[in-house]
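ok trying again, last paste got cut off:
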Amino acid sequence: MKFSEYLKDKVMVLLFQGLAVIVSFVYLKICGLKPDQLFFIYMVWFMVLVVYMGVEWYRRKKFFDEIFHTLGELKEPYLISEIMPYSYRLEDKLYAQILKFSNKSVVDAVRHLEREQAEYKEFIENWIHEVKLPITAMNLICDNVKNDETRRIKLQLNLLENDVEKALFYARSDRVYQDYFIRQIRLDEVVYEVIERNQMYLRMNQMGIDVEVGEVSVYCDDKWLAFILSQLLINGVKYRRERECRIVIRAMEQEGRTILIVEDNGIGIKASELGRVFQKGFTGTNGRQNRQSTGIGLYLCKKLCRKLDMGIDIQSEEGKYTRVVLGFPDGSEHFGRGYLKKT
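nice, full thing came through this time. structure:
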């Protein structure tokens, strides 16, 4: 709080003091006080007023500086009313009471919304588990009755199952810690499991796969990693070129860390859009041409990687390739966008 701001706030007090000086001067002049006596009286008056306003400004500044300092360190700034410093002023006490009442209303509203959101997420998760049952049953029927028609149905069921999985992971993405288990896993086992799960989708779209992973182990959750890889494979198919479509999956060591690269030779991404592909709902030029795009897949991949302490980076050149690089933590540092070297 600046002193000039304090003076502006005290304009009415200063005007009243000026009026009091004029009235008292007229009265004392009538009473016959000499000029030197009047000068002494008003000098004392002025000095007392300056000292009072200076001390008052300093105390108020210290009071509000302490509040703003505490506010800057709070994780929940709306709780400032609970730890405001004591003030003898009635005005400050009334403001504190108003803040407490207002904050209580906000906290109650937030808790109500949190309960509603938790109930909604619980309903979505239960619905997803229920809808998986008929999908599994239809898959079994297609496996028992194999013909061109059932193969096409099974392909659509696989796509539907992926969308259902996406909805489930999206619902759980804010509380990954409740549903993941970090352990040492073999990358090649997870990669081949994902390819097998999506083999019909890959085959129907004539997408070739090259795997160069080897017996590499990392610390991660295999279920969540499989979901991320599935999204990357599906994206590779969605944005493929017309002929000679291929996806290459390879693992390598870079600066003592393990990275997994998923690269396709598809239509690529515009340079102007590359920085936005992880944003929620962003589909870009390619996505607007492909009605299957929702802008959720890569957003979820980024979010889950952040929760799992993994790094994810994307490199692309329009009309040539798209390369997604997953970095697995080794316990010493965190990965971040732009950290991984281009390969």
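cool. The CA atoms of residues 66 and 85 lie 8 Å apart. Confidence is low (pLDDT under 50) at residues 332-343.
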